[in-house]
Amino acid sequence: MLAACVVVVIITFLRHRTASDDEDTSETPDVIEYMTMWIGVVYAIVLGLAIAGVWEARSAAQDHVQAEAVALHEISERVRVYPPDVRNRIRDDVNAYVGQVVHAEWKSMADHGEVTQRGTDLLQRIRVDVTDYRPTTDFQAQAYQPLVDQVMAADQARNARAAAMGATMPGVVWFGLLTGAVVTIGMVFALQIRRTMRELILAGLFSALIAFLLFLIWDFDSPYSRGITASAEPFLRLFPHIGG
User: Quick check: 89 and 128 in contact, CB under 8 A?
Assistant: First the structure.
């Protein structure tokens, strides 16, 4: 943002120095004002749509985390009807998987943009624990299918989380956003901006705002690996003993 302000101010000073002595800065052709207005409106709409798109992608990424954590918590709670040895084994595997996601996999997603094989193996172990058990009572039989469904829900949420990693904005959209920013800020000079303090401040704030919005889009564009990311908080809230 500071760099954008500096560039605009420098160009303004250079333009003022190189302007001819008879240049009239008090008049701006009506067509330039009309074009500037419409360029600003169109670019504002494009920026708004881009911000809405990346924010929706980030919200969806957080929803995947929430769904996965809830499914695992349901597995851990529903196995209470199983025998102690089976119940404890499943809960231990769930805790091991959650610990892997929170302490190792989250860092792998941020640094490398991928989930870990260890996490995949631990989820498979949970699946085997749940599906291979043969209920011995009607009560256990009633809990069996919901447990299998929760394992499937956790697996689907994990796959969705893995698919949501990386940038969501296509390169051609970034080309349009950056080109539009250059054109929009460039139109400020087409309006024959003068070197008064008021105009310099407004031009600097205008360019800084566009730079901030572009940074915001870039930051939201990768839901798990940049500044304002989807967090592992649902896992820590439902499995508080894992956080330590």
Answer: no
> Given phi > 0 = left and psi -120 to 50 = alpha, else beta, which region is 166?
left
For residues 127 and 232, give the distance between their C-alpha atoms in angstroms, rounded to a whole number. Answer: 22
C-beta separation of 194 from 25 below 8 A: yes
SS (H, E, C) 189-240: HHCCCCCCHHHHHHHHHHHHHHHHHHHHHHHHCCCCCCCCCCCCHHHHHHCH
**pTM > 0.85:** no
Q: Which amino acid is at 105?
A: E
Rounded-to-5 percentages of helix, strand, coil across the chain: 80, 0, 20
Q: By three-state DSSP, how is residue 133 classified?
A: coil
Encode pLDDT of 149-179 as tens digits.
999 999 999 999 888 877 778 888 889 899 9
Query: Shortest CA distance to 33 belongs to which of 185, 181, 177, 188?
Result: 188
* Residue 94 tokens, joined: 């769930």
